[in-house]
Amino acid sequence: MIDGFIVHVAARLAALEAGSDAAQDGARVDGTHRPASRGERGAVSEQAALAHGLRVRAGVLRETLRLLDEVPREPVERARAGSLVGLEDEHGEETWWAILPGGQGDRVAGATVVSPGSPIARALIGSEEGDPMRILQGGRPIDVVVVSVG
What tens digit of pLDDT does each residue of 60-95 get? Predict the structure, then answer.
């Protein structure tokens, strides 16, 4: 799961870097050329702001990749950062949650990846197989049982 998420984050990073480069190219003014109109000046400024925002987001993704490299990968009995947790609801439907740095609800390999600080992750951390719990899903409480922690 961790390796799959690393590939997912690395692909997002590559796309952001490409977009940042394109935006930066749009923000350049050649040598003596000065934007002739307010519209042209505005467009150049917007491209520069976009390039900056994309560079900042790329930095966040690089930090996420660094943190993912540090996540312990050995099996555990209690959920923690790095765990894949399976839940079964009262209707017998299973959902899978991966607790990983940088998770934002991405779907990877059939699991929803959430950050350790998210409400669902905070509820799951410390749980073990067989634990009943009540979680909020879609704004409503549901009763679930932890069926797997890995």
Answer: 999 999 999 999 888 899 999 999 999 999 899 999
Question: Which stretch of DSSP H or E encloses residue 64?
Answer: helix 38-70
R_g of the chain, CA atoms, integer Å:
21
Name 9's Cβ contacts closer than 8 Å, sequence gap at least 6: 61, 64, 65, 68, 102
State in words which class domain 84-149 has: alpha beta
| Helix, coil or strand: residue 88 | strand
Taking the domains of the chain in order of start, what are their residue ranges?
2-70, 84-149
The tokens of 120 are what? 């669902």
What pLDDT, in 10s, does the model give residues 100-110? 999 999 999 99
- Predicted TM-score (pTM) of the model is 0.74
